[in-house]
Amino acid sequence: MSEDSTGLLTIGELARATGLTVRTIRYWSDEGALPPVARSAGGYRLYDAASVARLELIRTLRELGLGLDDVRRVLAGERTVAEVAAAHVVALDAQIRSLKVTRAVLSSVARRGSSAEETTLMNKLARLSAAERRRIMEEFVEEMFHGLDSVDPDIRERMQNTAVNLPDDPTPEQVDAWVELAELVQDAEFRAQMRRAAELNHSDRGADTPAGASRWFAKRLVELVGKARERGIAPEAPEADQVLRDLFGDADPAAVLERISATHNVRLARYRELLGILKGTPVHSYADEFSWVAAALQARTGS
């Protein structure tokens, strides 16, 4: 139907002018985004030149993913295009992050050949919010240090400041690492191991022991044992006695072995490795050096 005498356009002419379907235009009109400016004698909707421009704006906003509610607010002057766009960017960012996690989870499932149960758990843990991940780690650290005021402040601070989150674009390996870490820190046996390590650190420290002493000792151990291993000294060899004396003085080997076993074991080393994977900064656990010391102590205690 044509309304040439009035300069108005029927819905069919508007469709031909814009390339949109009559059905789409009628829907947007019914929803209040594109009200007709008049009705013909036969009751047909009529639109003017401004309606064409309005329709183009509606199409643009819809193609950008905005809902009709937001479109109506823009057209009514209740919100600017910039305001709606900024809000939509935030929503899209969240959706993109979610899609990236989905991709990483599916890639991990495909690579590992995960069962349905494993896939469900992996997806659940990977989709925890940053606040939920932080709560899991805070509860773990709180249990580890509760009531142990003399623990090395350097260790306490590093544990409390451990930021554990999935990157915005996680790799399948990072999804695997977070899932394994979440399970590890919620495991009662591992929490007991970490608590025992904190208790030993607490009992070993004197009032004048400086912060960071634990890290300094670990560095010295790695250095001395590294040199001994380069010289081919076996843990059970007599030459290893001097290395142990340099590290522990006249301390009881059995007591030292208990502390070494509690603070440097396979699961604790794995914990550090998982943190490194999540942060994208691989961690060297120096497991060989600590294993050498443990073997040397065992050889002298008959363990």
Please provide a written account of the structure.
- A 3-stranded antiparallel beta sheet has the order 1-3-2.
- It is rod-shaped, with a radius of gyration of 33 Å.
- The model has no long low-confidence stretch (mean pLDDT 84).
- The protein is an all-alpha fold and 303 residues long.
- It contains 15 helices and 3 strands.
Number of strands: 3
Q: List unreliable stretches of 5+ residues.
A: none
Q: Please outline the major beta sheet.
A: 3 strands, antiparallel
Strand-residue fraction?
A: under 5%
Secondary-structure-derived class: mainly alpha
Tell me, what's the shape? Answer: rod-shaped
Give the tags.
single chain, mainly alpha, rod-shaped
How is this fold's topology laid out?
Layout: E1 9-10, H1 11-18, H2 22-30, E2 38-39, E3 45-47, H3 49-63, H4 68-75, H5 81-112, H6 116-126, H7 130-145, H8 153-160, H9 172-185, H10 188-204, H11 213-230, H12 240-248, H13 253-263, H14 266-279, H15 287-301
Antiparallel strand pairs: 1-3, 2-3
Helix pairs in contact: 5-6, 5-9, 6-9, 7-10, 9-14, 11-12, 11-15, 13-15
Question: How would you sum up this structure in a few lines?
Answer:
With 303 residues, this protein is mainly α. The protein has 15 helices and three strands. A three-stranded antiparallel sheet has the order 1-3-2.
